[in-house]
């Protein structure tokens, strides 16, 4: 294979057209992106919807066909599908095709990339748009999903800075603020700020679901419960894969959380009014300070 | 003391003009309630704001003065203040003054009422508006807080049905759906649907607040974290008192939750993909079914 046009002039291929991939296609189109955007999915229904919603310009049911001549390939499938896809891609891409992804865990993607692209790691730009919704699938795709959200790139020492810059510019066109982190920091930080809250919410709803008196519990659940558990409506396959790909960091956060709840339990059991008030005040003040910083984007 | 007018024609006194009390005053006024509404608070600043915002018609800095000739007294202070207030009220109310409250735990209110109104329990109507906001204080008062929210009344066997009916009608004027539960069921159900999520959120934020790397965690926290932790911005004194008043039920829920997280941890550690996907799917489907019922109010 040979392709002489620069990557920016060749098709951008979205592999996996669910919430994340479809939102990327829609956001690029809404931003006036003029290149061809191609969509691949194992599901013909997803491809049909992607085409009819204008998520992509062209759909392909064969991965090899989808990525032919591609300038950039973006993997937005569940994470455990990525190693198999990277293996296939390694046999079909141009030498200069940039490979990036939207997975929530970066070490597992990097490990697979090092396996299947060991002699061309310069093209690998691991990425993670820190944005989500509790709805999933191509129908949930939204051109505004990434606007004012952060995208984290975790380039390797081998990554070509020009490849990173190209991926950065794509996300910036979607309205995102792009930052760079190293892989290990990314996976540790996201285990705390994102993965733990998801598993805490899934665990709480699953616990109530199995109770005989669950009808009464849900009947009197109000806005606090609704917000606390919102992320428990997220895609089960995506969150299964995150648990399987970021296992050590998630175990560490779950252990820390169980310890924190056990300490809180002790204060309740001891009726330690002062310590309870101090803990709740610290939590409230910390959260409110965080919200203030969000509203005031100056550093 | 003697008062011959019916309770409905005498002042309604709100003892504690924070989020809950101020919202009640504003909601009644917005609904065209024509009786006099009186506000009492230990804080002169709160009283001044309550008066200037039109939360109440009249403010009083002395509890005995505030409740003089009252038809209904509504306690909306933090719960640990209620026994002392009930003791004072027992020396100053008319024989037929109805006493109700807005506390989140009912057994502790009932216990105090049985202590200080042992010979006139017919007037006691324990209540709990299941509505809240993460902001507290008189400034957070909102005439719409109770609209389309449930208010739970837990009348005693001794309570005069006419007193319950009167309190019910007040909340209905605020747009609430009023239901009745027994005290023990109320406290157990709310420990699950409300108290546990609050303590789980307080515990999570407090845990991150003490970490050296907290700036990074909060920097990359997104919408899921924001919603999960929203209730951690709630009033620390209110939630301290709930922990001290509903201790056994809360300990039981915290224990169950730690068990649930420990089971989830085991599935992650064992990389049990099928069981993880099943757990997350069960949680998602349960939550979505609950949301569907909320949107479809038919029984």
Short structural summary:
Two copies of one chain form a homodimer. Chain A is α/β, with parallel strands linked by helices and 299 residues long. Chain A is built from twelve helices and nine strands.
What does this structure look like?
The structure is a homodimer of 299-residue chains. With 299 residues, the first copy, chain A, is of the alpha/beta class. Chain A has 2 domains: 175 residues, NAD(P)-binding Rossmann-like Domain (Rossmann fold, 3-Layer(aba) Sandwich), CATH 3.40.50.720; 110 residues, 6-phosphogluconate dehydrogenase C-terminal like domain (6-phosphogluconate dehydrogenase C-terminal fold). Helices cover 51% and strands 11% of the residues of chain A. In chain A, the strands form 2 sheets. In chain A, strands 3-2-1-4-5-6 form a 6-stranded parallel beta sheet, with helices on both faces. A 3-stranded mixed beta sheet of chain A has the order 7-8-9, with helices on one face. The longest helix of chain A is centred in the middle third of the chain and has 27 residues.
Number of helical regions of chain A: 12
Mean pLDDT of chain A: 95
Give start-end ranges of low-pLDDT stretches of chain A.
none
> Could you tell me how far the N terminus lies from the C terminus of chain A, measured between alpha carbons in angstroms?
47 Å
**Largest pleated sheet of chain A:** 6 strands, parallel
Query: From N to C, what is the helix and strand string of chain A?
Result: EHEHEHEHEHEEEHEHHHHHH
Can you say what the CATH homologous superfamily of the largest domain in chain A is?
NAD(P)-binding Rossmann-like Domain
Quaternary structure of the protein: homodimer
Strand content of chain A: 5-15%
Class from secondary-structure proportions of chain A: alpha/beta
> Can you tell me the CATH topology of the largest domain in chain A?
Rossmann fold
């Amino acid at each position: 294979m040979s392709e002489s046009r620069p990557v920016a002039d060749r098709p951008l291929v979205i592999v996996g057209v669910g919430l994340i991939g479809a939102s990327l296609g829609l956001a690029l189109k809404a931003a006036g992106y003029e290149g061809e955007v191609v969509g691949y999915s194992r599901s013909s229904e997803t491809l049909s919807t992607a085409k009819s919603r204008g998520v992509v310009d062209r759909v392909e049911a064969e991965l090899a066909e989808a990525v032919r001549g591609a300038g950039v390939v973006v993997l937005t499938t569940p994470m455990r599908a990525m190693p198999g896809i990277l293996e296939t891609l390694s046999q079909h891409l141009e030498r200069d095709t940039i490979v990036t992804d939207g997975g929530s865990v970066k070490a597992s993607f990097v490990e697979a990339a090092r396996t299947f692209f060991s002699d061309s790691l310069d093209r690998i730009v691991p990425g993670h748009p820190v944005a989500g919704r509790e709805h999933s699938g191509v129908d949930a795709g939204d051109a505004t999903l990434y606007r004012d959200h952060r995208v984290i790139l975790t380039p390797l020492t081998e990554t070509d800075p020009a490849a990173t810059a190209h991926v950065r510019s794509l996300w910036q066109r979607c309205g995102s603020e792009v930052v760079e982190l190293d892989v290990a920091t990314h996976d540790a930080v996201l285990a705390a700020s994102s993965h733990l809250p998801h598993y805490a919410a899934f665990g709480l709803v699953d616990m109530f679901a199995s109770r005989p008196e669950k009808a009464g519990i849900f009947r009197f659940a109000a806005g606090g419960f609704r917000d606390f558990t919102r992320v428990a409506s997220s895609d089960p396959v995506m969150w299964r894969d995150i648990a399987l790909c970021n296992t050590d960091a998630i175990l560490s956060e779950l252990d820390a959380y169980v310890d924190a709840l056990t300490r809180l339990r002790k204060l309740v059991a001891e009726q330690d009014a002062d310590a309870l008030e101090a803990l709740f005040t610290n939590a409230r003040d910390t959260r409110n300070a965080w919200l203030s910083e969000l509203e005031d984007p100056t550093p």
